[in-house]
Amino acid sequence: MNGVELRNVTKAYAGLTVMENINLEITDGDFVVLLGPSGCGKSTLLNMIAGLEPTTGGEIHIGGRNVTELEPDERDIAMVFQSYALYPTMSVRKNIGFGLKMGGMRKDEIEKRVADVGELLQITPLLDRKPSQLSGGQQQRVAIGRALVREPSVFLFDEPLSNLDAKLRADMRVELKRLHERLGRTIVYVTHDQIEAMTLATKVVVLEKGRIQQADTPENVYRRPANHFVASFVGAPTMNFISGKMLQDGSDIVFDSGAGQLPLVDVPTEARNLIGQPITLGARPEHLLFDDAGIASRVLLAEPTGPDQYVRLAVAGSEITARCGPEQVFRSGSDTRILIDGARMSLFDPQSGQALLQA
């Protein structure tokens, strides 16, 4: 088994603890993405797994072995960095096979592995070129090939696509997804890009201030965030938040913000148990429904994006963003009506920020 397990991992610099009691189990074949804002600790965590930074406490296990005190080359891992770091005077072929050569592998075995990797990454025609003759996307493929050729237990990626333009990033995401599906190897991948996280991962680990906020499938992280931070960080545009309380209005349930009452539909049973309590309601733009039975709202701005449009609204003392199709026409200053899909809303404790509805 080629999984990774972190047991109470702690990291401190000059006595200042920046990560404390990190526990995480990455199963064999998982594609785990460490996601979070700058300074949250995701690269530090990856470097500790790689052995590039020592832990202050706790243990790291790879493939069932305790590797906490082992050097990077003893951990059976391969790492791909943000910088391609290719040898400019060597051909692609020699760049990919250099590590194997330094390890004393036979020349014929090196040639076979390089050829296999070249075919897998579709760079066979580039094997005799120099890095200066390659595009950014091609250079990143070579960097990935240099890791693949070693056939390690675990691959570590530290923001490998951040130097590419938007089109190349999208293309490389597809290639990485296909690569993982074909190889089935364990991958730990660091990024601050939500699209990369949501499209690549089998599990997303959201970090903030050196702590794991949620570790779950991309779907659950998006649909059922564990707390206010995860809800606000994941998703673009961000989730809408309104403070207030749910009230019973005859057979209906509304959310009272203090400046107006927003109708809720399809409210689940567990949410009904919170009626009357102070809460923070979270609704993603697609959870706001344009309906004549809704509350009166003023259109502030409409932003068409092609397949969708985002409509900024003033409603019940708040400004919120709704998402809808391009066929609807909105003009700034006009009136419309909205209600909230209670089946998909999130509810948070206003003090702790923890989710009150379970996934």
From TrEMBL:
One record GO biological process: carbohydrate transport
Species annotation: Thalassospira lohafexi
Family of this protein: Belongs to the ABC transporter superfamily.
Name of this chain's protein: Sugar ABC transporter
ABC transporter domain: residues covered: 4-234
GO cellular component term of the entry, any: ATP-binding cassette (ABC) transporter complex, substrate-binding subunit-containing
CDD domains: ABC_MalK_N
PANTHER family: MALTODEXTRIN IMPORT ATP-BINDING PROTEIN MSMX, OSMOPROTECTIVE COMPOUNDS UPTAKE ATP-BINDING PROTEIN GGTA
GO molecular-function term, one example from the UniProt record: ATP binding
One Pfam family this sequence matches: OB_MalK
Keywords assigned: ATP-binding, Nucleotide-binding, Transport
